[in-house]
Amino acid sequence: MPLLLQQIMYMERRMLLKRMALLGLAAAIPFKQTLSAAFFKSSKRPFHRFNLGELELTVITDGHISLSPVQPHFPNGNEAQEKELLRKSFRPTEAVDLGMNILLIKKGTELILLDTGTGGSFGPDSGWLLASLSDAGMEPAQITAIVISHAHPDHIGGLLSATGAFVFPNATIHMSAVEHAFWMAPQQDFSKSKFQDKKLLETFATAIRKVLTTIQPKLHLFQNNSILFNCLRMQLAPGHTPGHTITYVFSGKEEMVHIADLMHSDVLLFPHPEWGFDGDTDIQLAATTRKQVLAILAQTQTKVFGYHLPWPGIGHVRTQGEGYEWIAETYAFPG
Ligand SMILES: [Zn+2]
């Protein structure tokens, strides 16, 4: 890549970080920051490994992002009700801490990564993907494919280094054609989003377009319901972004669905999927999709993996009154 472009990309990352920090988006009262950043610098990061049919699945962490205060992030909800729900669940009421769970799938000699984290563009509490990968015994050159759920910066941020170089040199990159078309258009329609700073969304869009342009030589676009690598079925779940995709991971009779950014809180959005998320591009469509997918997941009792749900993001969905609840999987021992 020409040096100038590298420099522009680097500068834009710095600028984005600064602007996000100013808005309280990046380092929004990261109440665990001091502890976690310091702790994880000197410690091995844990990973969670299990089998799904013939596949070996590993969950690693890219860190976490703290949303604080809770409003305006779940904008269709009532602040008092949201705080009450958090209190009843023994959670802090001043912030929702988003996990950054990254799924790795080993299928024979193929090693497939689902999303790539922030790449450090959201501050020191995330961007841990490479360190986590190393602690799980793998290195970037071993990754053969990367599947992107949608093109937000906390999912594509790890594709390129700060200087614009490919972090995973041997990997093909796969993304929804709908998602790609949305971000590559000269302008994006953010009129149905409840994100307060529309100017910042435009800055995001420019940065996203630059990344998508850079990765073009390695990029493969998929259509709705495509099967990739004979173990992934890609299903459009629009609203968070137009091409936001959930991934059915399957092997033999076993199945798990990676719901990507369908849910940004286990406590708030399962009982109240209509409360929405301010990061949704079309908040109404996202709520409709969220309700439809939750109904199916509860009915089919499918195992679920959530990118932003509490570590390691694995569980099931159950109906509860008029809404749903998240039943996290628990384990007798670490690993
Ligand atoms: Zn996300």
TrEMBL record:
Keywords: Hydrolase, Metal-binding, Zinc. It comes from the Bacteria. GO terms for molecular function: hydrolase activity; metal ion binding. Residues 99-308 form the Metallo-beta-lactamase domain. CDD domains: OPHC2-like_MBL-fold (cd07720). The keyword Manganese does not apply. The keyword DNA-binding does not apply. InterPro entries: MBL_superfamily_lactonases, Metallo-B-lactamas, RibonucZ/Hydroxyglut_hydro. Pfam families: Lactamase_B. Belongs to the metallo-beta-lactamase superfamily. This is Glyoxylase, beta-lactamase superfamily II. It comes from Filimonas lacunae.
